[in-house]
Write a structure and sequence with these properties.
about 300 residues; Rossmann fold; elongated; nucleotide-binding; P-loop_NTPase
């Protein structure tokens, strides 16, 4: 194990937009190379990469895209994140020694929980347990509190979903003050992070990423569902209107032919939904609506 600690360290920064992810990268690099969301109004569509040397070791840092960026619509945001994470995996052929999950000190909202769930689908359900280190940013806010308790005591006192997250990543958590200019503090917190990375000893590789493909399919369908639901309702309405306009004209053959055409339209819609659902079960409500429509069309044959 000791020899492995002399190797390069590859780190991937992940987390919700606005939690200080890029600032953490700059703290690790000990220089400003990554642009934070507070300094730009543009949406990052790719990763940022940089490296530094510390205590005789090369540290390679990849800043992934922030999750939950409200400046873009949900489907586009999901596509951008997935594309950027694909790029991040390709950029590190030897894998990542740790996924640094960045959380802001003092608040862990439902949005943060949703972000963790999103990342677990993206990287795999075991990724937090096996590969993540929780990095609590805004350590300056922690230091300014007058409780007198240490960081480990603070972690132990947390409850609810944040405590569950701590337990899931086996309490691998470090505190970072990204604002400090004190070199000894910068070196101390970076050293603590590296020690935790070395203890982790689980490399996240392209193989792990490939195994998580079903989760990423799930994310894309979730993101597209509002559009799919709207389009399905629109098509159902069109077919229903055709059905209502169908009157018995005294020629049973024509009526049956028209019903057959309408029935085939509904079947095609059902097949499309099955394909879009990709066996995830996310579109069950929409599929049920089409089944009801098919039953209604079938009942017209007996009139």
């Amino acid at each position: 194990m000791a020899s492995s600690h002399q190797k390069d360290i590859n780190l991937l920064l992940i987390g919700k937009t606005g939690n200080g992810k890029s600032a953490l990268g700059n703290s690790i690099l000990r220089t400003v190379l990554f642009v934070s969301t507070s300094s730009t109004t543009s949406v990052t569509t790719s990763i940022a990469e940089a490296h530094t040397d510390f205590n005789g070791r090369r540290i390679n840092v990849v800043d992934g895209p922030g999750v939950g960026d409200t400046r873009v619509d949900n489907e586009l945001a999901t596509v951008l994140v997935l594309e950027a994470m694909n790029e991040a995996i390709r950029s590190s052929p030897n894998g990542y020694n740790a996924l640094l999950l960045v959380v802001r000190f003092g608040r862990f909202s439902n949005e943060d929980k949703d972000t963790v769930d999103f990342l677990k689908k993206l990287f795999g359900v075991e990724s937090v347990k096996q590969n993540c280190i929780l990095v609590i940013t805004h350590g300056d806010d922690f230091e300014s509190e007058e409780s007198g308790e240490g960081f480990e005591e603070w972690c132990a006192a947390q409850q609810g979903v944040f405590q569950e997250l701590l337990q899931e990543c086996h309490h691998r958590a470090v505190l970072f003050n990204n604002k400090t200019k004190d070199k000894s503090t910068q070196d101390r917190q970076l050293k603590a992070l590296i020690e935790m990375v070395d203890q982790l000893d689980n490399v996240y590789t392209d193989e792990h990423f490939s195994k998580a493909i079903p989760g990423r399919i799930h994310l894309m369908i979730e993101a597209r569902r509002p559009i799919i639901s709207f389009e399905t309702s629109f098509e159902i309405q069109k077919i229903t209107e055709k059905l209502e306009r169908l009157h018995f004209n005294g020629n049973p053959a024509n009526r049956t032919k028209n019903l057959d055409e309408i029935f085939m339209e509904a079947l095609e819609l059902q097949d499309l939904l099955d394909a879009q659902d990709a066996q995830t079960g996310l579109l069950e409500n929409e599929k049920t609506e089409v089944k009801i429509l098919l039953n209604e069309i079938t009942s017209k044959y007996t009139l």
